[in-house]
């Protein structure tokens, strides 16, 4: 019996492809697929799948023993085992020594944090030791000014300081001092802390943008070791269903469903850390209606258990949900989720981009974020990145010399020719032709139109002036050396975040601004520092990334709750 992937919930993290010993895993319909003719039934792919969406064809589901309703008592219940939930649970247990239970809906811990890259550290003991000035107060003022003072100043300050405290604590408590390295940026002359991940699991990676192997999975592994040492009980396959409250409306616990039945967890404090709502269609339609427009489906990098459970449970007990300040961003164009070497090449500003009809539609200088708003408006919601063999050679050499992803990026880019050949063989992600007319036929566009588009673009390159979209002359490179390649680009979403309104102590608030007693929320299911409109992606995410907020908010709540416990 071969294995199969439930494609609609595949994040395309590449793990199944990496571990398959016979090359049975490849792309089909823009998601990973297992060739049943090649599959040898070893099960390596299923064991590696963080989303738990790979199963053996025809296998009987494992049945758990049914049990009567159970009551359990503890001091703190944390719902969700992503970075925010584990940071909160482990820090609270570390400081208080009290009984902490973590409930995880999935069969595996980590949530979206497992896929995350790095996080921002504004100041730490590493900076202090190196004599680097502490500019956090100035940075906070600039951030609040840039967000037009729409943020809670006290919450923002706690984030800027809390993420540094989190790293200092990890270095001291998790035996990972040599994992964090202070570096000075060669261009901006600013200092930053890089995560080298020397003591974590060294996962083989073919994509520098998604884990495991990045900063997120590193943190999860370290926190899980601390949880085991401190006696924090992490219960997987326990899906929280409802918050328990007393007559006054104070939260007293959580009802959870496990494979065998129902368990009531009664606790002094409860924290909701259930992650984003990328797989909650109702919330997505409410906050990002263009997500479901006709055309190429938008790729979701989130785990399928991210269905907004915490938001629903909090709303049921009277929490104020902020539906306006969410980040359900549609990003792109990008060659995701295919080979990262080609993703990186397409990001370079020399690339020529055309729509589904073969027409150029914008300047390609900022084709990662700058064109994101165009993606829902393009025919079919996809486009093509056009390159010739000369451009591929020039851009790949430059990326290997100046890789923003370090040695991993250099290693990945060095295999671009193999990745290109593989994707051409698959037929979906990359089309090729010896002439522009041949390429157009492979793409399914009118040869005369594509040829005219490229010839006009080449004229701009030769004259040094882009008369159509005014691309910087430095990035004008003609396409004249066949074979030619067209790389498929689409829109994607990393996560849809936002939800409960909270104060600077991470307490969940009612519509009148008062906190719901004993209820806290951290990470992606909160309004937190999210803002509507362009301030969200263009400033907030650039300054306080999702993973930064995730870890800082969890750590802050853990400290606060430890004092209460």
Compact description:
It contains 17 helices and 24 strands.
Protein structure class? alpha/beta
Distance between the termini: 52 Å
Helix percent reads 25-40%
Q: How is the largest sheet built, in terms of strand order?
A: 10-7-6-14-24-23
**Rg over CA atoms:** 25 Å
* β-sheet strand percentage: 15-25%
The major β-sheet equals: 6 strands, mixed
Number of helices: 17
Shape: globular
Number of strands: 24
Low-confidence stretches: none
Overall residue-averaged pLDDT value: 94
Tell me what the structure shows:
This protein is an alpha/beta fold. It is 33% helix and 19% strand. The protein is built from 17 helices and 24 strands. It has a 6-stranded mixed sheet. A hairpin with a 5-residue loop joins strand 23 (507-509) and strand 24.
Could you give the topology of this structure?
Elements: E1 3-5, H1 15-19, E2 25-28, E3 31-34, H2 44-48, E4 54-56, E5 70-73, E6 76-79, H3 83-96, E7 100-103, H4 125-130, H5 136-146, H6 153-173, E8 180-184, E9 191-195, H7 215-230, E10 233-235, E11 239-245, E12 251-258, E13 261-266, E14 269-272, H8 281-287, E15 299-300, H9 309-316, E16 327-328, E17 331-334, H10 340-347, E18 352-355, E19 382-388, H11 389-401, H12 406-413, H13 416-426, E20 430-433, H14 436-443, H15 447-463, E21 484-493, E22 496-497, E23 507-509, E24 515-521, H16 535-543, H17 546-564
Parallel strand pairs: 5-13, 6-7, 6-14, 7-10, 14-24, 15-21
Antiparallel strand pairs: 1-4, 2-3, 8-9, 11-12, 12-13, 16-22, 17-21, 18-19, 19-21, 20-21, 23-24
